[in-house]
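Cross-check.
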Amino acid sequence: MKSLSKIVLFTGLGAMIAVGSAYAGSKLNLIINGQEFDTSKLDLQVKDGKVLVPIDLLAEKFKGKAVYDADKNEVQVMLPDSAQQAVQIGRLEAGLVPTTAQEALNTWVKGIQTRNGALQYAVFSPELRTKTKQEFEYYYWTTGGSSPHMTEIDKLKTKSLNKTTTQFSFDYGLRSSNWKGTGSAIVTVQKMTSQGYEGWYITNIKMKDPGDTGTTIGVEPFKK
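Predicted model, tokenized:
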């Protein structure tokens, strides 16, 4: 069990663990992150607007287990490392919530410069996340290419579109082992709530040449 991460849940869960007979016959579908799971053995049901399922069966579904300790009056739910890593990623993203429009831009630029797709994705709006998540996953969260890469930004201009929307336009340097060039971009940032946190998130990115830094995800070309 060394590979399992432990979460301890206290009183009030015993009834959900003991027997699944109260949930028998459920025909509800269970979809997590777009993937459908077989619920024939989960006894899933909705009661008074709440989704109920025996916690031991749910833990088992995700290759873990739940153990009830009557002496301590507690339940230990042991989940695979991947579940704990998802919590860690969520906490990291919470720490990256941009408190200003400029901070959102700076984080995205750093993500491009370091070819870090996860860093770019962290400051995307919910809509932009939906559009780009599959592509980020396809490239294993690595963007860009061997060369050229984005260097410093220059000629930064800031335009307030309204109280909650800011637009940045700027040039950026491009460099490879034996070549230097420039590119340009327009990034729109909006104040909103995403993943339960209020902050400034990127809603639109336009680049004169979306491919000048290699694989750049979530970017549109300038309109001609």
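Residues 4-85 form one domain. Residues 1-25 have pLDDT under 50 and may be disordered. Passed to J.P. for a second look.
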